[in-house]
Amino acid sequence: MLIIGCDFHPAWQQVAWMETETGETGEGKLVNGTGEAERFYRGLAEPALVGVEACGNSQWFIELLQRLKHEVWVGDAAQIRASYVRKQKTDKRDAAHILRLLVEGRFPRLWVPSPEQRDVRQLLIHRHKLVEMRTRVKNGLQHLALNRGMQKKHKLWSMAGQQALRELPLQGWASRRREDLLQLWKSLNRQIEELDKAAEEECQRDKMALLLRTHPGVGAITALAFVVTIGDASRFRRGKQVASYLGLIPREHSSGGRQRLGAISKQGNRFLRFLLGEAVHNVIRLDEGFRKQYRQRCHRMAKGVAQVAAARQLAVRLYWMLRTQTAYPEIVRIESSPGRGPGQPAKRLDRDVDWALSPPVKTGGSHSRIMVAVVGRIDGWWNEVSSTEM
Length: 390
Description:
The chain is of the alpha/beta class.
């Protein structure tokens, strides 16, 4: 069998290969734009195993290999780099190192979403970007109104507020800016409404998303994003791994019996963390038990920390809903039960949240046991979000 280690770059790639039966090895540099890379993989006599680091702008290459019937493994770039101790880093060394990990069975393979899941992610990301654009447009209009002494806050978007905004005495480019921003605002509203309908239709076709929507405060966008990000819930053994996967656990730098905890790690999907943080406000308002626990935390810790803890608790609860196929409110009775049944959470989830965000204890116990290694810590979303958003 032919095994290929690939150090991928947008313009070209460095490859190192090995034939396991004969022990023959080789290396080379392939240019992507001229078709040299495609001809190389098409010319292989039999399907090969190709290992590549998770990186941006590589989806076309992965799809090409899949069409050619090659087996593609996507690896965690951070773990691949951490396993290489030499101080000399070159493309040839990187490709040879990936090949070595594949041959020795140490390649940190990641979970990769299906094409259907990637398509839904594109829908959600596109909607999110348009909402951000609309927010900037609305802020610009608010700025124009405040500069003329008109303070209406959210009432500015009513019919009367828009009429008052149009009647403001603006001259020159300020008047042109107002007209352009109003047109952009209306256009973005129409586009976002269309995407909202598309997201609702996708949610109605997804049984897992419908299951999550039984929870108060969880809408179509949050439910879909959680399903396509987590994927197969059975790949996580417990809720702490899901919190680690989403970057909702504290950083830790402990040594010599002294424990040091920091802010949350943020090693995960930024978009889903944002949605969970937004959904928490609705969940606190609609779920009495959740609201009571949140208020109790606010007495013991800063409000921002309490909100992060609530987002973590919501993520763990949604995970158990997927894992046990249990709808709300039955999932609340399961997580609050002192006993444990088949496929049920082992502890109360609110206790897990408080423990993960609590101060260090005198016994020297470490929070590091929640920072477990999860197969597929990075799930391929990075290929669809620019590097400036990480």
